[in-house]
Write a structure and sequence with these properties.
255 residues; elongated; 64% helix; three-stranded mixed β-sheet
């Protein structure tokens, strides 16, 4: 537990938000919101540990936490989905227990319910790096290739940011800061595409992966899917994806 706590970092945006709330006399609101964010992230951390993944770092923002995990891209899709869902699930269970078990004032319960609902809805939006984008990409990876799912997640993220901005642009400076963070992470995700895809490919020749299905008629490396074993038919001969990937990274081979 101590090692996990050492990995939690409070982002400067969060300090700004908390200070603003204190100055405006919204101390109770700030404490409740921060508590919900922490509980939400604990939900993720519990499931990450249960799935035996290594936690690299946790950045706490006003709208939630962003946890970096040391795991394979070609990991189990079911585990990844449960991790993404457990933040919201754990958060709502704990908030329900708090509001029903403890004798709280009507005003406090109202504030808790409002922030709990707001954070839940916000986190399931399909915007990078929110839980909603991870859930969306997980579903897309079950249907399409990894690279196409990656692209589509980015497109839907920017589209969702535009809608979110249009809906929230008149409210407050905090919303502009949140939108700026979301745009930053979406752009970073786009810039990382080449590196991430190469890592996805290399994992498939470096590790023994528990593939669920076999695809015998794959056309190109861009068609590779998570949890699928692929074979390529070239000039009437089948070659494995390992051979195809090695040829891609072998600079002396022209293929």
């Amino acid at each position: 537990m101590k090692n996990i706590l050492n990995k939690i970092k409070i982002n400067s945006f969060t300090y700004y938000f908390l200070i603003t709330c204190f100055i405006c006399g919204l101390i109770k609101n700030a404490i409740i919101l921060f508590l919900i964010v922490i509980i939400h992230e604990i939900g993720h951390l519990i499931m990450i540990r249960l799935c035996h993944y290594k936690i690299e770092k946790v950045n706490i923002y006003p709208f939630g936490g962003i946890t970096t995990i040391n795991k394979l891209i070609n990991s189990n899709l079911n585990k990844d989905l449960i991790i993404s869902l457990n933040g919201v699930i754990f958060q709502n269970i704990v908030m329900f227990l708090i509001t029903t078990v403890f004798s709280l004032s009507e005003n406090t319960v109202e504030i808790i319910n409002y922030y709990n609902k707001s954070i839940t809805i916000f986190n399931i939006l399909p915007i990078i790096p929110l839980d909603g984008s991870k859930i969306l990409e997980n579903i897309l990876n079950r249907l399409f290739s990894y690279k196409f799912s990656y692209y589509l997640t980015i497109v839907l993220s920017f589209l969702s940011i535009a809608i979110f901005f249009e809906y929230n642009k008149i409210y407050s400076l905090n919303n502009y800061l949140i939108i700026s963070v979301l745009i930053f992470y979406s752009i970073k995700y786009l810039k990382d595409l080449k590196y991430t895809f190469n890592k996805f490919l290399l994992e498939r020749i470096m590790y023994t992966l528990p593939f669920k299905k076999i695809n015998n008629n794959t056309k190109k490396l861009n068609d590779l899917k998570i949890n699928n074993k692929h074979y390529f038919k070239i000039h009437g001969k089948y070659i494995s994806e390992e051979e195809k990937i090695r040829k891609k990274f072998d600079k002396s081979t022209y293929f």
